[in-house]
Amino acid sequence: MGGYAVEGRDIMPATTIHFVRHGEVFNPGHVLYERLPGFHLSDRGRRMAEATARYLASNPQTTMASAVYCSPLDRTRETAQAIVEALNEARARRGQEPLEAVSDERIVEAGNEFRGRRIGHGDGALWRPENLRLVRNLWIPSWGESYRHIASRMAAFARETIWRHPDEQVVAVSHESPIWSFRHLLETGRPEHNMLLRHVALASVTSVTFDGDTGRVMSITYADPAADVS
Fold first, then answer.
1. How far apart are CA 15 and CA 7, in angstroms?
2. Which of 15, 71, 175, 225 could form a disulfide with 55 if both were Cys (CB 3.0 to 4.6 A apart)?
């Protein structure tokens, strides 16, 4: 997987982090919400989160998840809550203590100078000339937090997670850009990418298994449990 190693400590054989993207957001105004508060899951988004939660709770590996982390934003916390509830039902049947979602700033949405702008026409629209001046380079990107910085904070989260949860399954609810930037780094050795080619559907699961002795990536898999949710 590109030879990328997560620097770590002497820990147990393997940890898998399941990076889940949040469900669909209620956004009738088509605002680029970035890290703005008050953007919650839509009704469909909640159904998507519940579908992914059922998938995780019924899968032989992920049902054994020992921790759930999430970005501090509304949409990720709500998605994580659905997952926690489903996992806790399975844990209760096994006589285990319930989990609680833990917020972590390192897996938050990318910073973006377009936050609050609208996709479309009118005042504040993204496509107005004063906004398009920021779009100078798709690969950096020129309008916000760099992909390298995003991947770096995701890698820091992964390092600590591997150390805290040796040989365990962990769920981390994040966002499209952080998940793909980190995956691209792991697979190619560089986080820069074309944002139009990301493969991170809403409520999808990108699972990365790390060798605990070396910190190297053993496998990356992808699932889209909410693909058919309407």
1. 14
2. 225
